[in-house]
Amino acid sequence: MARRPLGAVGVAIAGVAITAGAALAWGSLIERRLFTLRRVSVPVLAPGATPITVLHLSDLHMAPWQRDKQEWVRALADLKPDLIVDTGDNLGHEHGVDGIEYAFERFRGIPGVYVSGSNDYFGPQPKNPLKYFTGPSTHPRRSPTLDIQRLHSFFDDLGWLELNNAAGAVTVKGTHLEFFGVDDPHRHFDKLELLAGAIDELRENDPAEGLPTVTIGVAHAPYQRVLDSFVTHGAEVIFAGHTHGGQVCVPGFGALVTNCDIPRRQVKGLSVWTHALRSAYLNVSAGLGTSVYAPIRFACRPEATLLTLTPSM
Fold this sequence. Notes:
single chain, 313 residues, alpha/beta, Purple Acid Phosphatase, chain A, domain 2, six-stranded mixed β-sheet, 7 helices
């Protein structure tokens, strides 16, 4: 029997299927490994101050077999940043801390700060991706626990400051960098009511002593309640991750989802967050990884960010 030629509808369906298959192959096999360094400048230092380079890392979701990602992160040490800011979700597997220790060891001697994301506490589980269109992801009751104590011990051994519902300070190149942060807002581990006391205690026990000061807020997930609170408490720069930049985006449109309540236009990159007549620069990292159960990125390359803090005009 002779085959009937495809009609216009059949040709269109076949074209869509081929395009979708090609996009899936690109996103799962190629783009998710196209690690990218984004460079931006943030004019917040005092006039005449020496610029400070900050390496922002987030959402590695590390699994032990991801050697290409580990080697790429190790190579970032060649940039010789003045400071590391890690905004959480470092782990993506029960043995992911092995890969983090290997990747981050070359940062030893560089000051840093960190907060935790939910995937530093709990391992990934399969999820229906369509549920992200109904709002931020929910949390399974029985998620496998990860070795966050070992992760924090390693960061502490590097000399980094933990900012989970806490404050701390580092002096870099003659500028006093004052930090405060919260534990993972996505799991509601953030305790915003503790920030005022933590900041007051920091300023009493670690005063700037006449040095110019920049105040920085750090969180894993950029929920509006957190960003508003940070701005209220005087943050001039805010670092966050969590969103994966949308992870699967539409060229010319952008992210389809944010997995929190931040506006889509601010799902990744540098922007300004305004609240109650105050504002702060906000850098949301698109992150370097994905869940092992959703290993795909499209029109949203994995990234780290090198921010240069420069004198304001």
